[in-house]
Amino acid sequence: MEYDFVPLSQRQPLKWPGGARIALIVTINLEYWDLLKESPEPYYAGGPPVIPDPMPGNVPDLPNYSWREYGQRVGVWRMIDTFDEVGVPASCTMNAKMGLERRAVIDAVNGRGWELVPHNYEQGELLTRHHFDRDGEKRLIDETLKVYEQVVGRPARGWLSSSLRGTTQTADICAENGLIFYCDLMNDDQPYLIRTPAGPIVSTPYSVEINDFTFFHRRGMTTTQALDVLKEQFDQLYREGAGSGRLMNVGLHPHVSGHPYRIRALREFLAYAKGHADVWWATREEIASWYLAKHQSHIPA
Q1: 2-40 residue pLDDT tens
Q2: DSSP per position, the chain
Q3: For labeling, which of 104, 111, 161, 218 is most exposed (least CB within 10 Å)?
Q4: CATH superfamily of 8-297
Q5: Mean pLDDT along residues 97-108
Q6: Domain ranges, ordered by start, for the chain
């Protein structure tokens, strides 16, 4: 995996389709956690726990497990209703085990025509554990993509590693599998090309700043404060997008944003963004396909 350092000031203007100022991706992460692991080591389940005391993987951590499962049983349905109410799509990521163990959630998203992006096999299976074992990482990615196609009914087009913990070889393995976008890098407000031995793959940056884990569990924001941050981010990127298009990603988790006292931030932000012209409610696949054809007019290879 290689990419060039090209600062914003040295790029040509990025012109989104239809003259849009901003491509907006609101992501619902559909994640699955095992109750037990065959290890006495602390189980890192991806993202901050609601109760911080670490537990061995082979001992059930019922408070944190059931808190996360709330998102699958209740929270995600409240979020889906909110997107339906406002009339805009989400872009969802999914662990393979969500498709195997929580099929109703995946079918609901798939039936709406929303994007689904592979997001590792299980949320606690970090790719970084395979940094010195490329074959092991490839097997995990290959198995995830296999389950994805079986459950979703079409081949995957991109990848987001669980907890954003990819390796220097993840993008290469993704490109070998015919994927066209990769989300683990958070270093830009625009897409750009990553070079791999199998050909280019498009970086469609995710965000840990514009993310409900950061808002609520790392910064302790209120619902109103989180809504203010979302609007501030949107307004600034929308303003800059008049000259060169911008990309905004919002990262959400059903067990965090799907609670009743937080859903207002999502509902009001979606309505706020929908009230603006020149917003492209894009999928990552649409952005990547477009950028592969247009990148020379932005950052020449």
Answers
A1: 999 999 999 999 999 999 999 999 999 999 999 999 999
A2: -B-----GGGSPPP--GGG-SEEEEEEEEE----S--SSSSB---SS--SS----BTTS--HHHHHHHHHIIIIIHHHHHHHHHHHT---EEEE-HHHHHH-HHHHHHHHHTT-EEEE--SSTT--GGGGTT-HHHHHHHHHHHHHHHHHHHSS---EE--GGG---TTHHHHHHHTT--EE------SS-EEEB-TT--EEE----SSSBHIIIIIIS---HHHHHHHHHHHHHHHHHHTTTS-EEEEEEE-HHHHTSTTTHHHHHHHHHHHHTSSSEE---HHHHHHHHHHHGGGTS--
A3: 111
A4: Glycoside hydrolase/deacetylase (3.20.20.370)
A5: 98
A6: 8-297
